[in-house]
Specification:
Distance between the termini: 36 Å
Mean pLDDT: 92
Structural class: alpha+beta
Helix content: 10-25%
CATH architecture of the domain at 169-202 and 275-460: 4-Layer Sandwich
Pfam families: Metallophos, Metallophos_C, Pur_ac_phosph_N
Domain Calcineurin-like phosphoesterase: 168-366
CATH superfamily of the domain at 169-202 and 275-460: Metallo-dependent phosphatases
Radius of gyration: 21 Å
Domain Purple acid phosphatase C-terminal: 392-451
Bound molecules: 2-acetamido-2-deoxy-beta-D-glucopyranose, fe (ii) ion
Strand content: 25-35%
Largest sheet: 8 strands, mixed
CATH topology of the domain at 169-202 and 275-460: Purple Acid Phosphatase, chain A, domain 2
Keywords: Glycoprotein, Hydrolase, Iron, Metal-binding, Signal, Zinc
Catalytic activity: a phosphate monoester + H2O = an alcohol + phosphate
Low-confidence stretches: 1-33
Length: 473
């Protein structure tokens, strides 16, 4: 949650307040009908505890200047490049990555190293190296720390972009570094559906919940997630816990730790900032949006998204997926309507371009909507109730990674009609694309066995197979 310091607030907040007031008045009319399912699953509601600094998951790898916090993400538009990032602590050392495919010859890529200061914290040496011109659908091994203590990892490149390529995404949000976070990651890793890439919907380390935003907790989070993020790409979305703006201790530049530690290929999609960008991967087109950057009319994000959506060729990438941190449709009493002003700006485009699904975090619980839109509303006509809309996306809140702030257990009652399923439990989800017409979505709560699905839905593609796929009668 965390508060955005005034000194760092941008102009959109003023616009947002205005829209809020007006919508607040109209929405008071409310939706009175009962919606889908509110799960009665009994769960632990105590706040989660962060794993202590000497936990096994935070162990520093042995050896002088050994690379730590190794993580990868897609490095280009189509999936033929990978950005490899890691931290060394004793000295800068080499930014070289050695890599090879089975039976292929060893190659090397060079990158850059940088550090940053935050109040009285000084970061280690943060390396970012992009490996390019990889072959699709190929296993690559790679080594970092070549001058001192070498460490070897591997990853699979995605299949070539095309309409019928099956591909499996994992979904995690608001992870943090508690014992519950560790359970979520473990359950994802052991899920037999085997996610190949994580779509991460924001709020990574929660370091800002500590005194002076103790950036040591950014390092521990990097070491904790390495066991997955060094082997498969995590596609990053910026959440409010990435803002890290703290004017009270002289830190007035927003997103400093996040942008130094986590690079994304935003330039490849013509974006001017790392907070909004897009990638193509297998049969999907993933658009990442920024809840905490300006999105009003004429702003860079607005102009970019307008052009971006018109570029999507569904014959090439049938699945149009959007990630953002703050949800537009959320029926919990947490962060209620925080996403509303962005919805007002962008929702008509999502309907026009038939977005398949929108994944968000922020609310520490799970919720899946029906296909609904609220685009008829225009201040003067009062048509403010979301309606069933077969061209609209399904909205899924997956902010249930397990961070130290605890679960969002209080829900608005009655459950709105557009809400298909909601439950306040920690977990992760899988979006399993089968072909151009079908994808299988499942949500997995941490209390169950690895293969158990607490909620699921067969997605029918909005472009190729736009039949009614709602799960309610
Ligand atoms: C929750 O916290 C209370 C008070 O600290 C404790 O008595 C209780 O056992 C805890 N419940 C669970 C399920 O851990
Ligand atoms: C930073 O300052 C805080 C108190 O203001 C102190 O507790 C902490 O030890 C300091 N950390 C470093 C690395 O100097
Ligand atoms: C985290 O999970 C891993 C894998 O299940 C386990 O080996 C490790 O002991 C756990 N660590 C903590 C601190 O819970
Ligand atoms: C869209 O993609 C298909 C399949 O790759 C291709 O044949 C077609 O030319 C593309 N259309 C445009 C307008 O680029
Ligand atoms: C608002 O919507 C109504 C119909 O729902 C329409 O008649 C009116 O022209 C719209 N107003 C504006 C400013 O677009
Ligand atoms: C697409 O996948 C679904 C689900 O696996 C399957 O039922 C359907 O037949 C497939 N369609 C084609 C054209 O292969
Ligand atoms: Fe958040």
């Amino acid at each position: 949650m965390g508060v955005l310091g005034l000194a760092c607030a941008s102009t959109w907040s003023i616009q947002r307040v205005a829209i809020f007031v007006v919508l607040g008045l109209v929405l008071n009319l409310g939706v009175v009908c009962n919606g889908g399912k509110t799960s009665t699953f009994v769960r632990q509601i105590n706040r989660s505890l962060d794993m202590p600094l000497d936990s096994d998951v935070f162990k520093i790898p042995p050896g002088y200047n050994a690379p730590q916090q190794v993580h990868i993400t897609q490095g280009d538009r189509h999936g033929k490049a990978v950005i490899v990032s890691w931290v060394t602590v004793d000295e800068p050392g080499s930014s070289t990555v050695l890599y090879w495919s089975t039976n292929g010859k060893q190659k090397k890529a060079e990158g850059k190293v940088k550090t940053y200061k935050f109040y009285n914290y000084t970061s280690g040496y943060i390396h970012h190296t992009t490996i390019k011109k990889l072959k699709f659908n190929t296993k690559y091994y790679y080594v970092v720390g070549v001058d001192h203590s070498e460490r070897q990892f591997w990853f699979m490149t995605p299949p070539e972009v095309g309409p019928d390529v099956p591909y499996t995404f994992g979904l995690i949000g608001d992870l943090g570094q508690t014992f519950d976070s560790n359970k979520t990651l473990t359950h994802y890793e052991l899920n037999p559906l085997k996610g190949e890439t994580i779509l991460f919907v924001g709020d990574l380390s929660y370091a800002d919940d500590y005194p002076n935003h103790d950036n040591v907790r950014w390092d521990t989070w990097g070491r904790f997630t390495e066991r997955s993020a060094a082997y498969q790409p995590w596609i990053w979305t910026a959440g409010n816990h990435e803002i890290d703006c703290a004017p009270e201790i002289g830190e007035t530049k927003s997103f400093k730790p996040y942008t130094h530690r986590y690079h994304v290929p935003h330039k490849a999609s013509g974006s001017t900032a790392p907070f909004w960008y897009s990638i193509k991967r297998a049969s999907s087109y993933v658009i990442v949006l920024a809840s905490y950057s300006a999105y009003g009319k004429y702003t860079p994000q607005y102009v970019w998204l307008e052009q971006e959506l018109s570029k999507v060729n569904r014959s090439e990438t049938p699945w149009l997926i959007v990630l953002m941190h703050s949800p537009w449709y959320n029926s919990y009493n947490y962060h209620y309507m925080e996403g509303e002003s962005m919805r007002v700006m962008f929702e008509p485009w999502f309907v026009q371009y038939k977005v398949d699904v929108v994944f968000s975090g922020h609310v520490h619980a799970y919720e899946r909507s029906e296909r609904i839109s609220n685009v008829a509303y225009n201040i003067t006509n009062g048509n403010c109730i979301p309606v069933k809309d077969q061209f609209a996306p399904v909205y899924i809140t997956i902010g249930d990674g397990g961070n130290l702030e605890g679960l969002a257990t209080s829900m608005t009652e009655p459950q709105p009609e557009y809400s298909a399923y909601r439950e306040a439990s920690f977990g992760h989800a899988i979006f399993d694309i089968k072909n151009r017409s079908h994808a299988y979505f499942s949500w997995h709560r941490n209390q169950d066995g690895y293969a158990v699905e607490a909620d699921s839905m067969v997605f029918l593609n909005r472009y190729f197979h736009p039949l009614d796929d709602s799960t309610s009668a």
